[in-house]
TrEMBL record:
PANTHER family assigned: MITOCHONDRIAL DICARBOXYLATE CARRIER-RELATED (PTHR45618)
Coiled-coil stretches noted in the UniProt entry, renumbered to this chain: none
Protein origin, superkingdom: Eukaryota
Transmembrane segments: 90-110, 122-140, 185-205, 217-238
Solcar repeat locations: 120-208, 215-304
Subcellular location: Membrane
UniProt keyword annotations, A-Z: Membrane, Repeat, Transmembrane, Transmembrane helix, Transport
Family (UniProt): Belongs to the mitochondrial carrier (TC 2.A.29) family.
Species of the source: Halteria grandinella
Membrane-topology descriptor: Multi-pass membrane protein
One GO location term (cellular component): membrane
Full protein name: Mitochondrial carrier protein
Amino acid sequence: MPTQMEVEYWRRRYQRMNSERFVAANIMALVTHTVTQPLDTVKIRSQMLQEGKTFIGLGMQRGWYPFQILEEMNQAKGGLARYYSSIDAFLLRTVSYTTARIWAFGYFYDKVNKDPRRMARFDYFLGAGVAGGAVAGIVTNPVEIVFNRMQVDELYPERARRNYKHFLDGFYRTMEEGALMRGSVAGALKLGLLCSSMAGIFDLCKENSYYFFGPHWINRLWSTVIACLCGTLVSMPFDHIRTRLHTMRPLPNGVMPYTGTLDCLYKILRYECNPKFGSNPQSIFAGLEAYFLRLFLICYVSQFLLDYYHSNSHVQEFWQPARFNYQTGIDYDIHDPYTDAFNKKLVSSYVGGGGMQAAQVNGKDGFVII
């Protein structure tokens, strides 16, 4: 019979970060981020080229229309390497971001959801997403600022470029500048809103659409689209602000153009989104198409990678809703509080050895797990 300590171990093992989750999550992140990294570069450059401009009409501004940026980068030659800026910085950014986000979310989610066999309430889920995303945004800011600067360096004149040789060079020079944590508040808000908005909306859409479409592949597709759209709309303004704070340079008088997150937001809304200057609020969403498309591809492809991992992993997760297969891939049975792995473990360890009596302490007491 498992002791209470063993039960608690299995409960917490798969709610928080562990070695298995670390490896699986980062492998999936490296696959999806490698494929979608060109879109991230396009988004960052679209945001930079929008700075100081007004927005007039759909797709008319070079700084807003991301696919024109993609076309210009292709015409400039240089191959795929120009989209990744620096391989070491790209790998470090992907691993640090993935690890920090999952670790922080898992930590706070474990605090609000004591029983892993159940899903947390929507408001608890929301709170864990905000807290986890905010912590991840702050922790990974030193890596993000160096990588963002490397991505936009080609936009500057030759003499104005930072020319970081590699990530460590950029990290050291940024540290000397005293700017490692610049933009961390905007980054925390961006990731907090992103993590908290998408998961709950995805579950809500998928659960309700099941009653209309049944076990159909359209459930996963349209739920992912809606979740990514909501995540894009609520997080992109702060992503735009973070990009500007990361890449800003002193003005001719030696003063920085922005003093912080609120000052940057005020100036964007006041000068670039004001109809009085022939603009509109869409200016703050520069690069929206690339941002949304990248987010959707990462989320959608990751779900199929997770299906493959679950269906081929020999160590299945205990104390989570049971998984079952249907047309959209692997889904969860919220009515069965135990996984098939736990049931198999129970049967093989405590029943298979000595019949039903083996599941009891002395053959008389009942087998109870609290």
